[in-house]
Design brief:
The protein is of the alpha/beta class. It folds into two domains: 25-55 and 177-343, Rossmann fold (3-Layer(aba) Sandwich); 60-163, Rossmann fold (3-Layer(aba) Sandwich). The chain contains 15 helices and ten strands. It has helices at 5-12, 23-26, 37-43, 61-74, 91-103, 117-125, 144-154, 168-184, 200-212, 229-234, 258-261, 275-289, 295-311, 329-332, 335-340; strands spanning 33-35, 46-50, 83-87, 106-112, 129-133, 158-160, 191-194, 218-223, 269-272, 316-320. β4 (106-112), α6 and β5 form a beta-alpha-beta unit. α8 crosses α9 (200-212) and α12 crosses α13 (295-311). The longest helix is centred in the middle third of the chain and has 17 residues, at 168-184. Bound molecules: pyridoxal-5'-phosphate. Pyridoxal-5'-phosphate binds at residues 59-61, 90-92, 195-202, 250-251, 294, 296, 322-323.
């Protein structure tokens, strides 16, 4: 087989090879970096999206799930037949449930009882023991995160993966997502921007790109309404009360998690993207790029588009395509839901053809 030298070095690191991979875990990562052609040409810059929706569990959180479980194994906290416990209502639970099946662990997921039946059903179909509990504030000891921790502590050979404050999450992105982006752009990445939930993706990728570029790559946070990170970064580190809300899921934060804390001082800037712009981009991505992606991804692409304009013509900006629209389609493409959220008017006339559901 003939390899060019760059392909050979990529193959050595596990990128760009057609060799079989080892099980579900082996299929996580090495996602394509998609040049968003239509959007890029419109502004004369290069906008790239890391296709994390192509991970085998369907989202960027597969990497964190594998990183958290590998770390627990390395620390000797999890042995064959053990139990993984997490408090999550979203993609992390899906990633953990898959990895647990693949590695033979039990998976217990605590979530607020306000979550949709589809989410509960999906996790159960993936073999998880799902425990919906009353939706109470983080300060309340009955909050789903605290219950997850307590339950794990009550069992032998069990671990609470603690995605928000266990820095094995950001480390997984430092070890894999960051190097992949560096390799795929040939080191030409002027800006990286994404929204944060745990902050694992932003902090892990951001730290890697800053180190490799000698500080040249700018790393920005994109925030949904109702998140405090934009004001935190722009005020030089003051935390404000959370107010407002967003249609996006999996992102937005009211505090500096330990994962984000590993990097937040090096962040170059932050701005908030209103839901009106995110929903318009969600439809635009279908029309212009042929991509069917979730609302956090749409927000990320708006942010990358705006950051590329700030950095100037010819700049290269990378963001994260976190998951597909499949899990949200009954809302995002429903005329009634958009109307109820006051977002119908945000979708340009020529894109309204995509809201096909009543
Ligand atoms: C759809 C989606 N986008 C973005 C994120 C944020 O990623 P991170 O937790 O690494 O900040 C999440 C996290 O759950 C998510 O589910």
């Amino acid at each position: 087989m003939i390899f060019s030298s760059s392909l050979r070095s990529a193959a050595r690191r596990g990128f760009v090879t057609n060799a079989p991979v080892n099980g579900f875990d082996g299929a996580i990562g090495n996602t394509p970096l998609i040049y968003l052609k239509g959007l890029s040409e419109r502004i004369g810059s290069k906008i790239y999206g890391k296709a994390e929706f192509q991970n085998p569990g369907g989202s960027v959180k597969d990497r964190a799930a594998l990183g958290l479980i590998n770390n627990a194994e390395k620390l000797g906290l999890l042995k064959p037949g053990g139990t993984v416990v997490e408090g999550t209502a979203g993609n992390t639970g899906i990633g953990l449930a898959h990895v647990c099946r693949a590695k033979g662990y039990k998976c217990v997921i605590y979530m607020p009882n306000t979550q949709s039946q589809e989410k509960i059903d999906l996790l159960r179909m993936l073999g998880a023991d799902v425990r919906p509990v009353p939706a109470v504030a983080y300060e309340n000891p009955k909050n789903y995160n605290h219950q997850a921790k307590e339950y794990a502590e009550s069992l032998p050979n069990a671990v609470w993966t603690n995605q928000f404050d266990n820095v094995a999450n950001a480390q997984a992105h430092y070890d894999t997502t960051g190097p992949e982006i560096w390799e795929q752009t040939g080191g030409k990445v002027d800006g990286f921007i994404c929204a944060t939930g745990t902050g694992g993706t932003l902090a892990g990728v951001g730290r890697y790109l800053k180190e490799k570029s000698g500080g040249k790559t700018q790393v920005w946070i994109a925030d949904p309404p109702g998140s405090v990170l934009t004001s935190y970064v722009n005020s030089g580190g003051k935390l404000t009360e959370r107010s407002g809300s967003s249609i996006t899921e999996g992102i937005g934060q009211g505090r500096i998690t330990d994962n984000l804390g590993t990097f937040v001082k090096q962040v170059d800037g932050a701005f908030t993207v209103p839901d009106e712009k995110s929903i318009a981009m969600l439809y635009e991505l279908l029309e212009t790029e042929g991509l069917y992606l979730g609302a956090s991804t749409a927000l990320n692409v708006v942010a990358a588009y705006e950051l590329a304009q700030k950095l100037g013509k010819g700049s290269s900006v990378v963001t994260i395509l976190a998951d597909g629209a499949y899990r949200y389609q009954s809302r995002l493409f429903s005329k009634k839901w958009l109307e109820a959220k006051g977002l119908s008017g945000a979708i340009p006339e020529h894109l309204k053809k995509y809201s096909v559901l009543e």
